[in-house]
Amino acid sequence: MSVIDPARPKPLARKGARPTTGLFRAFWRWHFYASVVVVPVLLVLAVTGLVYLFRFQIEPLVHPDLMRVDHAEGQLTQPWQTQLEAVQEASPGATVVSFTEPTGADASARFTVEAAEGLTRDVFVDPYTVRVLGSLDPDSTISGTAVRLHADLMAGRIGDTVIELGACWAIVMAVTGYYLFVRGRRTRRRQREVDAPGARLRTTHARTGAFVGAGLLLLVVSGLPWTGIWGEQVQKLATDRGTSMWAEDPGALSNPTSTLDESLPHSHHAVPWAQGKSLVPQSDPVSAGDEVSVANLDTAVEVGDRSGLAHPVTVALPSDDRGVYSVIGYAFEDPGAERTVHVDRFGGQVVSTYGYDDYPALAKVVSQGIAVHEGRRFGTLNFWLTALFCVAVVVSCVTGPVMWWRRRPRGSGAVGAPRGRMPLASSPLLAVLVVGLAVLLPVFGASLVVVLLLDRVVIRRVPRLRQAFNTADR
Do 347 and 253 share a structural domain? Predict the structure, then answer.
């Protein structure tokens, strides 16, 4: 008695049409169409994500004259305020907005300055000699360009929406890919046994996809809070229910001047994601009196150290007499250690302290997810797994189109889409899942409506398009 493999298409008559029913061909078709949107987006995200992961290795190699200094054993660093004054002297007309301590004994100190025309540059200083080494535009560096592409394709709101669209359809591609992987495993094995053309490439694509799928879903979901549509809508929904994806410092709610992101340009360097929208308190020069000393940068760093902040700290400098020094502790690998201490300019008192323990529950979850997304939550293991996922995504994005190119129909004008239709009418559970996903991800839902309308109203009614897209009968 023979056993029928459900993943293997039934034998066809020579002149008969290929089958259009069944989940396998339907999922294959949707996997194909999802890839049209997903592959370009994921390829950009994977490559730029790799660059961002290795930014601490790449940039010092590219700019050793700015980021590396000679250090003799026992040599002491000069006061931070002295270095700040050197930067101010070397940057006439510019405002110094932040300072970041050196990351090691052979690293330079970094000051971010903002010119009158709004341009931002990072100025590097030798902490031992107080020599200004030079400056660069943080957006023009390799990692800075990668961050901008990764965020919105350097195309603003349109680019952000395109990335969100690709991320949503990546979920569809991962789910359908897993179904194809499981149901098609016997067919792939038979093809390898007879050394069928393309068998090894299909196996490579399937195995790589099986490895990358779960990690891809994790990275996509943890990256959605950054998106302009899903992220904003979820934040509004959360706010209506008394929580938030971001943190709001209760000690800063009286007469706030700005948010922490606004106080520190290019905040991906140091500002915890959950604190970017938190308000910054003010100093009070009136009540301070004439006898109170004015705090400087060294005072702020010392107060942050006494408050238990981990080094290297970043300090957002006050922009006027009512501003404060916002000292941000180093919490690269552990969001649970995120803390910011706001120091009054007059007397160096702590105005407020805000950190992970004060976050709403949702902000804590999102912060942990973002740390995993950036490959830093679980140290070296998280880093290399994320790097490996990025490489696997690149492999999948290359092998998929190559498979299509080899199997595409030549000379017929067809795009080579698998023939099949999703049996939503006969599968209520599947219909509920699709509708649920469309509601949960509005960008996916809107694009799905557009695709279905094009299929029903245009493609099915134009014979040439119907043939080109290999559209199944109703």
Answer: yes
Domain end point (choices 140, 173, 201): 140
Q: What is the pTM of this model?
A: 0.86
Across 272-287, b (16+ Cβ under 10 Å) vs e yields bbbbbbbbbbbbbeee
Q: What is the mean pLDDT of the chain?
A: 86
My answer on whether 163 and 44 are in the same domain is yes
One domain, residues 155 and 216: yes
CA neighbor of 320 nearest in space, from 339, 294, 291: 294
Percent of residues, the chain, with pLDDT higher than 70: 89
**Is 369 inside any structural domain?**
no
d(CA 224, CA 403): 30
Task: Look at residues 140, 170, 188 and tell me which one is the last residue of a structural domain.
Answer: 140
pLDDT tens for 168-197 read 999 999 999 999 999 998 989 999 888 888
Note whether 308 and 290 are same-domain residues.
yes
Please state the domain count of the chain: 3
Looking at the structure, do residues 91 and 219 belong to the same domain, yes or no?
no
64 or 72: which leads in pLDDT: 64
- Is the omega angle on the peptide bond into residue 312 within 30 degrees of 0, that is, cis? yes
Residue type, position 340, single letter: T
- Round to whole Å and give the CA distance between 369 and 381: 15
Question: Taking phi first (over 0 means left), then psi (-120 to 50 degrees means alpha), and beta for anything else, what does residue 195 get?
Answer: left
- Measure the CA angle with vertex 110, ends 106 and 114; round to 5°: 165
Residue 274 sits in the same domain as residue 402: no
Structural domain of 97? 64-140
pLDDT value at 11 more than 50: no
Quick check: 137 and 120 in contact, CB under 8 A? yes
Cβ atoms of 300 and 327 within 8 Å: the answer is: yes
CA distances from 296 to 45, 95, 271, 323, 435 (A): 41, 15, 21, 12, 57
Angle at 320 between CA 318 and CA 326, to 5 degrees: 15
Q: What CATH number has the domain bearing residue 122?
A: 3.30.505
Output the pLDDT for position 222: 84
Structure tokens at 153: 């394709």
